[in-house]
Amino acid sequence: MAAITMKKIVKRYGDGFPAVNEVSLDVRDGEFMILVGPSGCGKSTLLRMIVGLEDITSGEMLIGGKVVNKVAPRQRNLSMVFQNYALYPHLTVFENIAFPLRLAKTPDDEVQRRVKETAELLELTEHLDRKPANLSGGQRQRVAMGRAIVRQADAFLFDEPLSNLDAKLRGQMRTEISRLQRRLGVTTVYVTHDQTEAMTLGDRVAVLRKGVLQQVGSPRELYEEPVNLFVAGFIGSPSMNFLPASVDGASLDTPLGRFELRDDRKAAALGGREVVLVGVRPEHFEDASLISEEKKAKGATVHARVDVTEWLGNEQYAYVPYEAPADLSAQLRDLSRELDGDQLRTQAIVALDAASTIKPGGESELWIDTAKVHLFDPATGENLT
Ligand code: ATP
Fold first, then answer.
1. Contacts of 258 (CB under 8 A, 6+ apart)
2. Ligand 1 pocket: which residues have CB below 6 Å?
3. Is the pLDDT of residue 306 over 70?
4. Domain 4-230 fold
5. CATH number of this structure's domain 240-376
6. Which atom of ligand 1 is nearest to the CA of 160?
7. What is the pLDDT of residues 107-139, one digit of tens each?
8. What are the sequence ranges of the domains in the chain?
9. Pair type for strands 155-159 and 187-192
10. Model pTM score
């Protein structure tokens, strides 16, 4: 087992913009670390530098306390599981798992023992004589993991291993990977662009954007205390609403209505500002008609015109279109583009209890849990709260 330490790691391809820009990150011994971010943010490049498949332009990479910048991939004793499994179609499951041991000229009795142990752990014992073509997607995935595990490497590295699977299988495999990692307690770095995987799998999550590390923290920290607009918009599904607002004392004038911030710390964060973006997660809205007067008094009630509702059984989403003020719309458009166009909509998404009878058309009363809103600087994206 080994800790992985990155010190100001930079990767430049040619003379271009750095694909990875001064990333410093500590993956503790036995920790499950997720690298997440949108396409092109540099997460695969960073993973490939850990494994040694990519040269490091500057900075230091340490594995188990030793600098490995110049150490060949094979000598790093790491195991990588790729997106496309990379199984050998002509070999049986047994030989696919045994492959790294055969390469290392491991004696046959040890190969037999270790492959059988690994197969048992992954519930593949019955399938050892099959070829990959005769396995389901999930079984193939387990074989690929088996090959990584059998070597008893110091760390596992996963590059989007589940992206080729359908949604149901992805869910199952997520649980399996999580269970297996806990059982083996091996240091793991896992790359994904999927925030659900990021939130459910890891001990900690590192969010990257354009090669720059934005925030590292537990899933809960990222959800509750995002450092900026980007992390706030990336983590959580449906994503956080960002309402442009003009500030008047502790009062916010938003496209959904005007409301006060009762929390002194949040109100203080508004100090001297004219405009902010108010971040409200869909789940921090409620149908005002369903809550007590006492609770109502702790937040803000706004009147909104819902134009579409989606009923999901356990909850429902309501969509509230609005117009952003003209002076903010160019800025919002730029931000929106960067956040994959989904975050800075001109509509708010509201998650309501399944019991809510709010219908499209007409005015509805929505309650906002103002203690949970975030305030962002629209120019820098910094979280002010
Ligand atoms: P994805 O999820 O799409 O794989 P990513 O976050 O893993 O994206 P990387 O593949 O690490 O991103 O790429 C980061 C940046 O480096 C991108 O702008 C990409 O175009 C660039 N890049 C990656 N590999 C090379 C290469 N071999 N030569 C030149 N540029 C590259």
1. 251, 252
2. 13, 19, 37, 39-45, 193
3. yes
4. Rossmann fold (3.40.50)
5. 2.40.50.140
6. 2
7. 999 999 999 999 998 889 999 999 999 988 778
8. 4-230, 240-376
9. parallel
10. 0.89
